[in-house]
C-alpha cells in the first residue's frame, strides 16, 4: 500500500537574533528574529508635567491621587493647583493611614545629557499636623527631603542633579511617607506636588526671609529687597 502527504516548508532561513524594531535605538537591520533586546531612547529635556491633562501613561504611580479644587478632608491639602484651575497629585493621609505608609510616583525615563546644570524643580504643598515626609529620589538616590507641616501654602523647590550630569537615563521618583500623631494613627495632613520640570537650574530672585512682609516663598536667591 502507499500514502501521500502535502506539506509546506516556511522560514527556512537561519535565525539571526537581534532587535527587529526599526524605532528602537539598537535596531539591527540584519536580524530576522527578535530577541527582546530592543532599547528605546529616553525623553529629552527640558521636560515639564503639570498633570492638567491627567497623569501621563508612561509615569508609574503607586498611591498618589490626581485631584483638583481641594482635597476631601478639611484643613489639609491645597484648595487649588499652583496656577489655578488645574490638577495636582496628592497623598491623602486623612483617611486614616497608618504611620509609615508610603506612596510613590515616578517619571518616564529622561535624557539629561544636554543640560549643564541639571535640576528637577517642582511645587509642593504640605499642610496638616500629620503631613509626614516628602522625598525626591533619582535612580534610587535621595536628592531632596522635607518633613512636617509647612502651612497652607505652595512652595517651590529645586533639587540638584549635577551628580547625574551627562546621563541619558534617569527617573525621578516622588515618595510620600505618612507620619504618626499622638495616637499612632494619621488623620490630619495631606501633601501635594505640581508642575514638575527637569531643566537647567532656575534663579528666582526675591526676599527669602520668612519674617519679612514681602517674603517670597518661591524665591531661591535673596535680592536684598
Give a structural overview.
With 225 residues, the chain is mainly β. The protein contains no helices and 19 strands. The strands form six sheets. Strands 4, 6, 7, 11, 14 and 17 form a six-stranded antiparallel beta sheet that branches. A five-stranded antiparallel beta sheet has the order 5-9-15-12-13, with no helix packed on it. The chain has a two-stranded parallel sheet with strand order 1-2. Strand 12 (133-138) and strand 13 form a beta hairpin. The protein is elongated, with a radius of gyration of 24 Å. The protein starts with 16 loop residues before the first strand and ends with a strand. 26% of the residues are buried. The mean pLDDT is 90.
Short description:
The chain is mainly beta. It is built from no helices and 19 strands. It has strands at 17-18, 33-34, 43-44, 47-49, 60-62, 65-67, 88-92, 97-98, 102-106, 110-111, 118-127, 133-138, 141-147, 154-160, 172-177, 185-186, 190-200, 205-206, 221-222.
Low-confidence stretches: none
Total strand count, please? 19
The largest sheet, given as strand count, sense and whether it forms a barrel, is: 6 strands, antiparallel
* Gyration radius, in Å: 24 Å
Helix proportion: under 10%
Percent in strands:
35-45%
* Number of helical elements: 0
Distance between the termini: 107 Å
SSE order, one letter for each helix or strand: EEEEEEEEEEEEEEEEEEE
Structural class: mainly beta
In round numbers, the mean pLDDT is: 90
Tag the structure with descriptive keywords.
five-stranded antiparallel β-sheet, elongated, mainly beta, 225 residues
